[in-house]
Amino acid sequence: MKSTLAPESAEILSVITRFGEALNRHDIRTVSSFFDDNVVFTGPAGTTTGKAAVTERFQLMYSGRFRNATNTMQVTGVQMLTSSTAMIAAWCIAAGIVRSNGDALGDLKSHVSTTLVNRGGRWLIASQTIVNETATPQAIDEVSKIA
Questions:
Q1: How high does pLDDT run on average in the chain?
Q2: Do residues 86 and 58 make contact, with C-beta atoms less than 8 angstroms apart?
Q3: How is domain 7-144 classified at the architecture level of CATH?
Q4: Dihedral, CA atoms, 80, 10, 54, 141, nearest 10 degrees?
Q5: For the segment 67-107, what is each residue's pLDDT rounded down to a tens digit?
Q6: Element (H or E) spanning 21, and its range?
Q7: For residues 69 and 74, what is the distance between their CA atoms, to the nearest angstrom?
Q8: What is the pLDDT of residue 137?
Q9: String of DSSP letters for 76-141
Q10: Half-sphere exposure of 66 (CA within 13 A, CB side)
Q11: pLDDT by residue (tens digit) across 28-52?
């Protein structure tokens, strides 16, 4: 089957793929390189704004209870809002997260909404929101304590 994606969509999917690969390597320096300076990240632990603060949040997560985590992402849609703004909808399965007591948390299925902006010919993550879909209230409480 031939791809019918616009060239921008293919480039955006490549950015998200490389971001996910860096995340699975726990390469926070590379992960951070995908963030816009004013990035906003929202997850169970709340909202963090700004590249430095979001990078610090990821460093805390991946040096702690996410240290063995892997993420599998399935993009379900790419929508070009303008020629320099796009939204991606995806499902993500996070595995390998541990509870504060060291026990396995179990896989978490989340809906991920990511907004990218084109700055000087480079697509950057402007915002990302993660909504856990399969977690129990106890698991969400555990995840909210991570960062």
A1: 87
A2: no
A3: Roll (3.10)
A4: 80
A5: 899 999 999 999 999 999 999 999 999 999 888 788 888 88
A6: helix 7-25
A7: 17
A8: 60
A9: EEEEEEETTEEEEEEEEEEE--B-TTS-B---EEEEEEEEEEEETTEEEEEEEEEEESS--HHHHH
A10: 22
A11: 999 999 999 999 999 888 899 999 9
